[in-house]
Amino acid sequence: MGLLFLMVKPEQQPKQETTSTPPIEEKPDAVPVQYKGMPSEVVEELWQNPVYINAEKNKSEIVRREQAIEAIKKAETDREATKQKQLAERYAGLRTEQKTEFPNAQKDAAQILTEHIQGKREIGGLSPQEFFVLSKLKTAYEEFKRENSDKPFAFDLSRDIDRSVYKNLAQKLTFKVLEGRQNVGDQEKANAIRTELGIPPQEVKKEGSLLPEEESKSEVQEGGNEAALTKLRQLIEARAVKSRNPQALRELYTKMEQENDKAKIAEILVSEINQRKRQADYPINPNYQKAWEQATKDTAVNHKEESDWIYRGSFPTKEKPTITRGSLNITLDENATKELDALIQSGVIDANYKFGEPGTGAEASERHDAVTLYFLTEPTPEAMRALSNVAKKYYRGDDLIGRKISEGFYMSEVGSVSDTHARDLIQQLQGTDQELAKAVKTFLTSNFKGKERVAMSEAQFYSTKEMLNLFGIDIKHDKDKGFEILKNSSK
After folding, report:
1. Domains in the chain: how many in total?
2. What is the C-alpha to C-alpha distance for residues 1 and 23, in angstroms, rounded to an integer?
3. 180-223 per-position pLDDT tens digit
4. Residue 160, domain member (yes or no)
5. Residue 34: which domain range?
6. Which pLDDT score, from 0 to 100, does residue 108 have?
7. If pLDDT is split at 50, 70 and 90, which confidence band does 16 have?
8. Cα pseudo-dihedral 102, 103, 105, 109, rounded to 10
9. Which residues, 6+ apart, have CB-to-CB distance to 430 below 8 Å?
10. What is d(CA 294, CA 22) in angstroms, rounded to the nearest whole number?
11. Is the domain of 150 the same as that of 256?
12. Any idea which of 124-128, 164-168, 454-458, 473-477 has the lowest mean pLDDT?
């Protein structure tokens, strides 16, 4: 089979390899944190906007997605242009004899890439973008050979950014080959001098010409990440089977498995677990808008609007704070809200409840917990039965967080986790496993108007606990004492 290589003319040939990626030039928060560092093609696949009732909300979300993806694409183009410039400068700085040898080194680099695409060797130290492009070629090669086993494989990358990534990678490998050859030559010259002096020659280490030392770096090492990777594969595969571009998602997982970076695995895993716990995709409820309008105007009970939420009922005070919470996964309409109001008015429950504004991320169609209840006194058995009846009548599903009371009705087990306790958990994890501490800190940290805040919702508690369990660590929380870290005996 011929070499799979895109040759670059000498005047385009490179100078200095960079080990850091230029920062993304983007508007503040243009790219959501969960998509940063991913190829634009993967982001386009992962970021699928839901359809809102509010037409203006649909438009603004489409614009936000387009702007973020354009920012990522610009960053990709700028990054590869910077690499090309640095590589060209590096080539210009080569000695004459090195420039003469450069075409031969290019051929070796092409052979390295060919063997990688054929599955005969691995190349370590690939960036996410390089891995993504080579994974595409591997897949294309395998599919081609299944139908054309006796024919040579040729390819033409269709996306400009993929061609740029491939060319720059080829040039980077060329310089590694060139350095390896020079190293071998220096060792042979030293041995010649040793022979003249009557000193036994040393073994010549031929690292670099075909990068054998890179292969060991690319192998997945055993390190206690197997359970976490298995769970991550399940979550990503669940996305992939519903995806228009499953290959992109599966390649993302393969990259994670190959790198075997515990912090990265944990960071993506806890985010995916949390998304499954919190985000939903229920059919749009045609009566939801009327329920919202009724709840924002009806004065039968106290009510207030905050951000994207409407709250109705009895509100907490310093003397009478919220003591526990519950969740209902129900189909909301005007009758459902009136029944909840009646339970508050009659004193059956001493609480307030909230649900989200149509056309926002708080809307019930995007959440399992359509209604959140905030109790000011401990709910009685009568209150539990009454709420269970509401849940049964308007039942939509379970998938809630906490202790199950009945179908569609769960009560909180953790309650509110103070910011101080959340920060203390990260500090404790630092002494147990710094990589997991890094992942949890990223997960719990938000940035609003330039101010960082570490906070933990109940969903984040369960997501963090589930993720840590997969690495052999368990956590317990006490509202007064905070967190306790335990070893998970099941591991």
Report:
1. 4
2. 39
3. 777 655 555 655 665 666 666 666 565 544 444 443 333 333 34
4. yes
5. 10-203+212-218
6. 86
7. very low
8. 130
9. 437
10. 52
11. no
12. 124-128
pLDDT tens per residue, range 262-307: 998 999 899 888 878 877 778 889 999 999 999 999 999 999 998 7
Look-up: residue for tokens 């515990």? Answer: 262
Q: Give the DSSP H/E element, type plus range, for residue 377.
A: none
Cα–Cα dist 468/337, whole Å? 38
End-to-end CA gap in the chain: 47
Residue 414 counted as domain residue: no
pLDDT for residue 238: 78
pLDDT score of 51: 64
- Residue 21 domain flag: yes
Check the CA dihedral 229-234-235-238 and report its sign: positive
**27 and 171 share a domain?**
yes
Measured CA distances, 233 to 164, 230, 330, 340, 470 (Å): 30, 5, 31, 41, 13
**Per-residue CA distances from 237 to 135, 172, 249, 364 (Å):** 17, 33, 8, 26
Please tell me the total number of residues recorded for the chain in this structure.
Answer: 491
Write down the H helix ranges in 241-393: 246-259, 262-278, 288-297, 334-345, 381-393
Place 21 in a pLDDT band, splitting at 50, 70 and 90.
Answer: very low
Side chain identity at 320, as an amino acid letter? K
Write down the pLDDT at residue 53: 63
Residue with tokens 């005007």: 334
Cα torsion 168, 171, 173, 179: sign: negative
Q: What is the pLDDT of residue 52?
A: 63
What is the predicted pLDDT for the residue at 184?
Answer: 56
In this structure, are 308 and 199 located in the same domain?
no
What are the angstrom distances between the C-alpha of 388 and each of 269, 356, 411?
A: 33, 21, 11
**C-alpha–C-alpha distance, residues 234 and 253, integer Å:** 10
* CB 114 within 8 Å of CB 170: no
Whole-number pLDDT of residue 28: 47
Q: How far is CA 350 from the centre of its chain?
A: 40
Which region among 38-42, 245-249, 392-396 has the lowest average model confidence (pLDDT)? 245-249
- Which DSSP helix (H) or strand (E) runs through 372? strand 371-375
Q: Do 156 and 48 share a structural domain?
A: yes
Give the chain's mean pLDDT: 82
Tokens of 294: 């009724």
